[in-house]
């Protein structure tokens, strides 16, 4: 094998690992990559740590309603109990999930017959993805779900035993318990077994996985007293429809802006899938299932680039296995190393502008500006009330808006609290006077009536970082 290429792969891998570690040490203390979605995950873990497993859509604890599945925030809550702080436990869980994912990618590629150095190049390409970097640097479930899926596939790639088949079923069930859309690993492996005429094993895996999925759903229902399903029933497949499904390839392409590695690897994977004669083998079928589910995911409103992580991993797998089958590892290493180097340059720019954003100090500034009134803080970023030592009144402002549109009078308790000025402060993640902010609060967070009620009873009190603070009006004055 070409020695200079091995040196290039090693150098690019070291550059990526070094940059990732640097980003970790600089961004974690600043909370630079935490946003309102991370806040919802942290709030779920905090609720569980306090003894509440899933809120009802509305109840004494405020507004819940989420389509998030529980394994990640359950592990986070356990870590919170051990460490005493949600930051350390959350970051360590996210980082460990990505390390687990990379190890699974390497195992999968090696068991699929890929040369060692080509497998290293494939893992480097995965680490270079912005979706993987985001999973490492923030607090949310994507890395863990992807890792469990990859290991489920890896255990049965190449030679496998009946015991490994059932372990894979457990891993697929755990992936489903982490992220409800994580079904493509099981689907790809079952189809591959059926295509290779191992019908009995395919049926066994399908039944075992289905039992695992059912166990997850029953556990969620029983442990939450049915509260989990009140929200899921109303929020799953939000905004999906026939037209949005037809439009999902365009939505997916638009979401890839800024995700260079994902875009390059998807193009390479589509080329490999089109040219390979082994489309019915495991890598090809897994890629096809992942692509299909990803398109369905992107037919739902509010979908962001974090959902590209599984497609990136499957793209790397199908491309590297195809290149390996062609006995062209040097070509594969060259393409993967080049793509990773291009992505590394983009990540350097992200590091410069994104990793030192002082979100942590901004949260502290917001809490100080909101004052110590003893009243709850309302925010579409749950991290704000959490930083103030409060339980967030609204778990997820996006889901509040969805439920408000579907359930008559759902928002009335919150509108009443705003009218009575019972919140000590209201903190918004977008400027409501900007065009982007107007769109956010009309179509995504809280919904149409929110800004009208807010302005009648609260007045602007400045901003901190990217957050905008409103405090109660001293007099029930008109809004001019």
CA distance, first residue to last residue: 74 Å
Name the assembly state: single chain
Number of strands: 6
Q: Write down the overall mean pLDDT.
A: 92
The biggest sheet amounts to: 4 strands, mixed
Coarse structural class = mainly alpha
The total tally of domains equals 2
SSE pattern: HHEEHHHHHHHHHHHHHHHHEHHHEHHEE
In the predicted model, the low-confidence regions spanning at least 5 consecutive residues are none
| Residues in helix, % | 55-70%
Radius of gyration: 23 Å
Number of helices: 23
Shape: globular
How are strands sequenced across the largest beta sheet?
3-4-6-5
Percent range for β-strand residues: 5-15%
Describe the structure.
The protein is mainly alpha-helical. It has 2 domains: 3-30 and 67-354, no CATH class; 359-472, no CATH class. It has 23 helices and 6 strands. It has helices spanning 3-27, 36-49, 71-83, 86-111, 116-127, 130-137, 142-155, 162-178, 184-195, 199-223, 227-235, 242-246, 248-255, 260-275, 282-297, 309-325, 329-354, 359-370, 383-387, 397-406, 412-419, 435-443, 448-457; strands at 58-59, 62-63, 377-379, 425-428, 458-464, 467-472. A 4-stranded mixed sheet has the order 3-4-6-5. A two-stranded antiparallel ribbon has the order 1-2. A hairpin with a 2-residue loop joins β5 and β6. It is globular and about 75 Å long. It starts with a helix and ends in an 8-residue tail after the last strand. 49% of the residues are buried.
